[in-house]
Amino acid sequence: MSLPTLPTIDIFPFLPSSTCTPFQKQKCAASIFAACHDTGFFYLTNHSIPSTQTAEILSLARTFFTTAPLFEKLSIARRNCGVGDGDGARGWQRIGENLTGGKRDWHEAVDLYRDVGAREGKGPFDCLMGPNKWPTTPEGLKEKYEEYVEKMLELGEAVVMGMGWALLGEEGQDVFVKETRESFWVMRLIGYPPLPADVGDNDGRVSCGEHSDYGCVTLLLADDTKGALQVQAKDGSWIEADPVPGAFVVNIGDMMERWTNGLWKSTRHRVVHKGGGYRVSVPFFFEPDFEALVEPLESCVRRTGGERKYKEVRYGDHLKGKVMGNFFDDEDGAGRQEN
Question: Of 166, 208, 286, 326, which is the most exposed, with the fewest CB atoms less than 10 Å away?
Fold first, then answer.
């Protein structure tokens, strides 16, 4: 077995069930600081989410992608804002619909967001303000995923609490928690068929193109496929971040880079799945509140030379700006695939 290429963080000291001392929390926080500063990626262990639950989440996603009929997928397809029940983001996307860097990615997905109280059939909806479009195959997927979301929100809070400690000590434990109490979370079910040898020039020739994540913290659950997820090192080279049993792969996003004034960088990464089999992943994006105003922390400004490198931004505005350029559309606002 090859050794992990990323640092490993035992997050237990920051879980609600923990009875760890401040000294133990600070020791964990120091490891978090090093991981965020040096790589922006790490494996997260001892997170209390049962392996039976994570295995079920992956299995349900795989069953949807590989067995649901096309008419069902089309019934929950993402559509542009103002087109039918579309809000520009939520729903199923077929292969080639997602864009990264202007080039199409080789995966299909279902995007789900925090519930904003929108009702089905009551459109048109503003960007990101529609209802989630849940698969009905396999039966029970929605209920199982809603249970999982609650666990991930608790875990996300533990991670950002640890990050607050990492930057400011015990007095900083709520610095990010207070900005994520109504996290505008995103969860994606993603299916990756192997990249075909003849993928076209208009495509990115990757399963998911090089990018950084938009928000706060990403908690990635993936199957056991190796050689797919790649993380860019500081020297520009790519290292493989293969799955580790029982661990999430965690990375920081653009808002955490902004909060830290660049002390921690939002690391670029990509997926290149050329192996056999159908890869499935379910990333959970633990994000700031939609209305959160994100600007560099004064302590981080001081630690990075005293110059404020980023302006204040409302997270919802940042997210909308990113989402609007994410998809390849046909004339009626529904995604399409060209062969």
Answer: 326
In single-letter form, the type of residue at position 9 comes to I
Question: At which residue do the structure tokens 């661990």 appear?
Answer: 247
If you count DSSP H runs as helices and E runs as strands, how many of each does the chain have, helices first? 7, 16
Beta bridge partners of 170: none
Kind and range of the H or E run holding 295: none
CA angle, 326 as apex, 96 and 182 as ends, to 5°? 125
**Euclidean distance between the first and the last CA atom of the chain, given in angstroms as a whole number:** 39
β 8-10/41-45 pair status: parallel
Give the residue among 291, 247, 249, 248 at the shortest CA–CA distance from 267. 249
At 233-251, the pLDDT tens digits run 989 999 999 999 999 999 9
Dist. CA 90–CA 81, nearest whole Å: 10
Query: Which residue positions in the chain have pLDDT lower than 50?
Result: 1-2, 201-202, 331-333, 335-339
CA distances to 163, 192, 242, 259 from 41, in Å: 13, 22, 12, 17
